[in-house]
Each structure stands twice: as C-alpha cells, then as structure tokens.
Amino acid sequence: MARAQRICLFGATGSIGQSTLDVIAAHPERFEVYAMSAFNQVDKILELSLKHNPKVLNLPNQEAKDKLLSIWPSSKVLPEIRIGSEALVQTATDTEVDTVVCAIVGTAGLASAYAAAQAGKRILLANKEALVASGQLFMEAVKQSGAELLPIDSEHNAIFQCLPNPIKHDEIKQIILTASGGPFRDTDIALFDSVTPEQACKHPNWSMGRKISVDSATMLNKGLEVIEAKWLFDMPLEQIKVVVHPESIVHSMVHYKDGSMLAQLGHSDMRIPISHALAYPARVTNQAQEFDLEQLCQLNFRLPDLNRYPCLRLAYQAMEAGQLSTIVLNSSNEIAVDAFLNNQIKFTDIPRLIENMLAQNWQQSIDSIDAVHAFDDEVRSKSLEQLKQYA
Questions:
Q1: What's the mean pLDDT in 99-121?
Q2: Of 133, 312, 362, 389, most Cβ neighbours within 10 A?
Q3: pLDDT tens, 16-55?
Q4: What is the pLDDT of residue 386?
Q5: What is the Cα 153 distance to its own chain's centre?
C-alpha cells in the first residue's frame, strides 16, 4: 500500500484549514499533516498541532514562536518551527511535501503558492490572489514545472468536476458560476448606505470569515472568481457567466454546445470540494451532511443586478483591462473592506474607492512575483490616501 500523502496546510486556523483537517483526520491511511501555518492564533495552532502532529510549523514572527514555546507541553515532541514569509516558501518547496493546500487569505499567501507551483507540487488552491494578482505568471509556472492544480473553492471545484480532462474548449459554450447573492440580495438598494459590518457579515448560506463575507455581500468575491475561472480553465471572459442562486445547492454549471448542461449539486459544506481535491481522482467520504433529493424543494436562478452589485461590474472591467487592473481591483478592495469593517467608511464607499483606483493611470510592468508585491504595496498606499475623502 502506498504511503500517506504528505500535506502542507497553509492557513490551518481559518475555515478552509479547519475543513481540510477534518477530511485529513477522517482518512489517516491516505493523508498526513506534514506542515501547518498560522498567522496569529497561537493558542489555536497549539491545539491543532497536538491533535495532528505536524513535523513543521510556520509562524509569522519570533513573538508568535516565543508564545507557542511558552505554552507547549513539555511532554510533547516539539515540531520544527519556521518563522517569516521566506520560511513559507521553504516549506512550500520542501521535498517531503506532496501536496500544498494554499488557504492563506490575501496577498500574504501569494509567494508560497507561486513557489509551490514552481516546485511542481500538487496544489489545492483556495487563495484567490494567486490567480487574480498573478494569473499569467502563476499558470506559466504550473505549466513549466508540471505542477497539478486543483481548485478547492466550491464554485471552481464544481466546474472542474463538470469538465472533461483534458478540457475540450471547442465543445464548451459557457461556464456558469453561481452566487448566493449575499445577505442583501433582496434588500432595498436605498438602504445600502446604512448597512453595518455586522449585517454584511451575516451570510445566509455559508459560515465564513468577516472579510470574505463582506466580499460576498458586494459580490466582489464572485468577480474575483470570474477572474480565477478565466485563468484556471483558459476561458474567454465572454464565456464566463454569473447567476444568482439563493439556495446555494447548485455550485456551478458548464453549458455545452450540444445543449447539455452539467451541474454539481451538494450542501454548502467546504469539506465536499476539499475531499474531492485531496483524494482526486479517487472519491472519499467526508463528514458533510448527506444530500437528499427528496428534501429538495426548488431551485431559483436570476441574473445579478449590476446596480445592486457594482463590484461585479468592476471585476469584469478589470479583467478586460488586464493584470495591472486586477491587482488594483483586489488591493483597493482589501483596503476598502478593512475600512468598512472598522466603521471608517460606508458599505457603498467600497465600490466607489475601487472604481476611483481603477481610473488611475497605472504604468507598471508586472514580470515577477516581486513586481506584483511592489505594485500591490503601491496600490494599497494610494488607496489609504484616497480613503480620506470618504471618512
């Protein structure tokens, strides 16, 4: 029998990380946690380490390492602790690692994901920035190294399951991404100015972090997924469609030229796409609730109202404009969402700031991951300056 697949899990304490660990723990004969990373939840990473026994822990700085050492039980074997962003790259390319789960949120996860691609690893991708901020660079690295790229967010994993391998582009009419519509899908647009962070974070179907919950409310998240789909499946933008599907039962669809439409259905549980990708091409059980067609009442679909979701419109515009604009879209959105969550700007100021930043005359050349990070820093700095007019 083959040895267990050695997993490096970046972003272990987040919701994707927790779901991944649930699947791994259910199949110890198949999967082994070799390495984990956490940003600042030291107590949580201690708990997870004692349960899953990784060989390597990645922490952000010496302070986090010192805190972990101060609470680590003396009776337990201490893993190797690596600190800093460069250590993430070291772990991503570790020869002992078979599969890298990229679940760090934001551009902080970009360098390690790119390093895994260059090293030819099997990559389970949840980090959107790898493709939104560096799509061409990232996909070229995957192609050159022979890395295996498997999406684990629900929509792209659904599309992956509905497509043949290899993809036959001449047979596909359209890729259709479904969106819940977020908590304000039926709210009077006139009330958007008074939306609070607490309201925006109450997603109707999924349990997610605060930042991604706001992105769902604005549908910027779906815009980023459109950009990801373009790179993942090498599809023209005009063949990628978004529909609002309030029930979140159909996770995405592929419309073929012969009139057939294939869809992937399931409960809103991230353990489903994660277990699919971890075991691919095999199938394994997970702890998700069994899907029962007899309990399925109805499925509703409608086109998104771009007046309700201006961020979705901006995402399409950014993708049409090119890589610089998709970086601007993502970076300015992160600044805007953080300001909104800290009650510094209104909910409706999020698309205003993004549109303002997209309208700037950007001239940089993006030919490396370092260039991506440098440009990202510049956009964030200018976005913070622009925030002052919305305060």
A1: 95
A2: 133
A3: 999 999 999 999 999 999 999 999 899 999 999 999 999 9
A4: 95
A5: 6
Phi/psi for 164 (5° steps) reads: -75, 160
* Predicted confidence band of residue 203 (pLDDT cuts 50, 70, 90): confident
- Quick one: which of 308, 319, 320 has its CA closest to 179? 308
Handedness of CA 235, 238, 241, 242 (dihedral sign): positive
Cα 248–chain centre separation: 17
Sign for the CA dihedral angle at 200, 206, 211, 214 comes to negative
- For the chain, the domains span 5-151, 158-321
Q: In the CATH hierarchy, which fold is given to the domain comprising 5-151?
A: Rossmann fold (3.40.50)
Angstrom distance (rounded) from CA 323 to CA 250: 30
Q: What is the average pLDDT across 148-166?
A: 96
Residues 6+ apart with CB under 8 A from 245: 178, 179, 180, 181, 299, 300, 301
CB-CB neighbours of 59 under 10 Å: 23
Contacts of 145 (CB under 8 A, 6+ apart): 117, 118, 119, 120
Whose CA is closest to 232, among 319, 171, 167?
167
Could you give the CA distance from residue 87 to residue 74 in angstroms, rounded to a whole number? 25
Phi, psi torsion values for 46, nearest 5 degrees? -65, -50
